[in-house]
Design goal:
The structure is a single chain. This protein has 367 residues and is an alpha/beta fold. Helix content is 37%, strand content 27%. The strands form two sheets. Strands 3, 4, 5, 7, 8, 9, 10, 11 and 12 form a nine-stranded mixed beta sheet that branches. It has a five-stranded mixed beta sheet with strand order 2-1-6-14-13. Helix 1 packs parallel to helix 4, helix 1 runs parallel beside helix 9 and helix 9 packs antiparallel against helix 10.
């Protein structure tokens, strides 16, 4: 069996490892347009219980990744300079490049090395394979090569992804209003030396601040000034830290012929719920399982993959959309007092009602 995996992010690497491990005689290629050590952003965050979904099926990968994760049990919302701690909302984080390196090592253990700095640029490149797995991200070339019924809509807010050497004790959301408008920072440690620091603002604030006329260095300096108290003397670190609008990618069809979409090529989930990388890795698990159960009969396996996975994905995407929409209106919510604002924040995705919140965050509710 000849398999082509396009993209060496978490989805592509992990699917390739699982499939090759179960099918050692297959001919499998992983092609990635970027270099092996190239990555956008700094850390990735997982919601509570982190990689528990790996423990049963793949304890070796679980044991390889989890020692490198930073874990905490509370989150903090800072509004009008007042921190409100919400207990029991556990998260874990790891550097994105570290995660990729660990998955590269897993793939190397089954004899596969991705072909880096190689671009798939024509339909001819996809021919001659029994299965093509498009794991090439939100701007997937493979997805654009066929009609998957794709829609891409962008949220209004702008965000820029930075890092910092300031180590934060919890995942924290810091909201600030100044003379130009409204800003938010999502910040959390992803290693013992570094934290991720995502700066976000609404479109009106972005315009008034004059970001359209700033280069990357000027943007970094401006954001450092806005969040000077939060950073406590530490600097921001840039890595392609330009302003972006979050793209909501959706596809009516998950596969066409022998081509299947996984990860961000299939759908994106707003980063505020901490499930994007988990969704990508769970896609990889579900696709590998469907192929195994269907005896590698590709059409049947792809149909089985979608039938089993779509209801789960739809539920998580709905929560991500609700959360993303809350952030798109966060200046409106900032009219609330700090504690009421925290209540609005924690219920933004629709997944936590007051009764459930009392069970998992009793100190916050009783406060």
């Amino acid at each position: 069996m000849k398999v082509l995996v396009v993209g060496a992010g978490p989805a592509g690497l992990y699917f390739s490892y699982l499939f090759k491990k179960r099918n050692p005689d297959c001919e499998l290629r992983v092609v990635e347009q970027n270099a092996a050590d190239s990555t956008f952003g700094f850390g990735v965050v997982f919601s509570e219980k982190a990689l528990e979904f790996l423990r049963g099926d793949d304890p070796q990968t679980y044991d390889a990744i989890t020692p490198h994760m930073e874990v905490w049990t509370d989150l903090t919302v800072v509004h009008r300079g007042t921190p409100v701690v919400i207990d029991g909302i556990g998260f874990a984080a790891i550097g994105r490049l570290k995660l990729l390196n660990l998955l590269q090592e897993r793939l190397s253990s089954v004899g596969i090395r991705p072909e880096y700095s190689k671009t798939i640029s024509s339909a001819e490149d996809l021919k001659g394979h029994d299965l093509v797995v498009a794991a090439d991200g939100a701007n997937s070339y493979v997805r654009r090569s066929a009609d998957f019924g794709t829609t891409v809509t962008s949220l209004n807010n702008k965000f820029a992804w930075f890092g910092t050497t300031k180590i934060f004790p919890t995942l924290t959301q810091t909201f600030i209003e100044n003379e130009r408008g409204h800003f938010n920072a999502h910040h959390y440690r992803h290693s013992r030396e570094m934290s991720t620091f995502v700066v976000e603002c609404d479109a009106a604030t972005w315009g008034r601040a004059g970001f359209s006329g700033m280069d990357e260095a000027a943007t970094l300096q401006y954001c450092e000034n806005v969040f000077a108290d939060t950073l406590g003397g530490h600097r921001l670190v840039s890595n392609k830290s330009v302003w972006r609008n979050f793209p909501n990618v959706r596809n009516e069809r998950w596969s066409m012929g022998n081509v299947v979409l996984i990860g961000d090529a299939l759908r994106t989930a707003h980063f505020s719920i901490g499930s994007g990388t988990r969704l990508a890795m769970e896609d990889a698990i579900a696709l590998a399982k469907a192929l195994q159960e269907c005896g590698n009969e590709v059409p049947r396996a792809l149909a089985s993959f979608e039938a089993a996975r779509r209801p789960i994905v739809d539920k998580l995407v709905a929560a991500a959309d609700a959360s993303g929409n809350w952030y798109d209106r966060f200046p409106e919510h900032m009219k609330l007092a700090p504690r009421e604002f925290a209540w609005s924040y924690i219920q933004r995705s629709g997944r936590i009602d007051p009764a459930r919140l009392r069970k998992i965050s009793p100190r916050f509710v009783d406060g």
